[in-house]
Design goal:
CATH topology of the largest domain: Thrombin, subunit H
Radius of gyration: 24 Å
CATH architecture of the largest domain: Beta Barrel
Shape: globular
CATH superfamily of the largest domain: Trypsin-like serine proteases
CATH class of the largest domain: Mainly Beta
Helix content: 10-25%
Distance between the termini: 22 Å
Strand order of the largest sheet: 9-8-5-6-7-11-10
Length: about 450
Amino acid sequence: MRSCSRHSLVIVLTWVLAAALPLAALAERPPIVDGKPMNSLSPMLEQVTPAVVNISSTTHVRVRDPFFSDPMFRRFFGGGVPREHVEHSLGSGVIVNAAKGYILTNNHVISGADAIKVTLHDGRSFKARLVGADPDTDIAVLQIKAVHLTQLPLADSSNTRVGDFVAAVGNPFGLGQSVTYGIVSALRRTGLGDTYQNFIQTDSAINPGNSGGALVNMHGQLIGINSMIYSPSGANAGIGFAIPSDLASRVMKQLLTYGEVRRGSLGLHVQALNPRLARALGVDAASGAVVTGVEDGSPAAKAGVRPGDLITAINGTDVDTPNDLANAEGLLPVGSHVSLSIRHQGRSRTLEMTMAPEQLAHASGDKIDPRLSGTELRDPSASEVAHKAGGVIVDHVDEGSRAGRSGLRKGDVIVGVNQRRTPNLNALKALLAGSPPRQLMLTIVRQNRMHYLLLH
């Protein structure tokens, strides 16, 4: 959950974990489908609802009782006694491949879960396997072994228009499957968090508990995976967001193929344009991303991008801020063709390039594994003396974070995970991609001595 306040109004961005309240006729007129008024959604929903499932996950969390953590108590009685409590999460998912039992849902529904159970519309329940998850787009893929499943066809969400009628299906507050009805309010919404975003906005009622549910068009096709709401109270306020089916499908294909999403990179470093910088560069634009650096050998370098160039669009979509460029770049897989519109010394031109594999040099630990939350990790620079086995330097650890409580310290060098080498950050990410191991044992080098460290 993310929240911010302005005056007395509290606006909440809530990751929601089931579906909406019972069917509400938010539009006075029925939708027109194939030239005919659709006076009831029942025929369409009879085909949709069997493909929408309930998801429950269980996570075991080790905690230390504050009483046992008291220094005076430890002095007389020894170390604190760790306890374990169980956290439960409820959400929804959509069957998109009945033959293989593949289910699309949100990453935050199953993140860190030790066990995942899927309950079908007909009441059957199955233990689910996590095929892979991508926190950067909040998409996860599960698999169940079951017969007689119903799958939901995926629409081409790029054809979705503002004003289209839609229905949201899922499991609100754990009450059971419900449906709401509304329209598409806006497209390509971004800037709502730290993930790569291209949200469909809808006024179809979505309440806390709707994560992973289906947003469908009037033909009963999946156009989005419901993900979050914008609300002053945490309940539905008529502003909900869904991940487009095109994006979810691309992510799913990579998770099924590689167990992770292999993102590409153009090799650019940029900053926002401001009036003073615009005058210095001699451009009359009011917005865009100014190139401050180009990595050697990168696609951008090969295409001729130079420091001082102003990026105004990528693949025909305007770039007003550096975040626009980062978001578009993060949604493009390796090998994608890219048209970059730039202005150089007052002249406009378009450069063509291909996304190359992203090479990490630094990353936040939570982007790699939840147990590394609160850390900043990086590869050693050429001037640093790294361990002979290579490794990943822990550049920062937040006090009180999961990693910090487990004993990880700034300056530690991670050279292995579960007794497998991690010579660099990309290797560390690859080892923990897809389905994270239940036990995370790090091999670290600290003050020239090697240690094992178990992260909870």
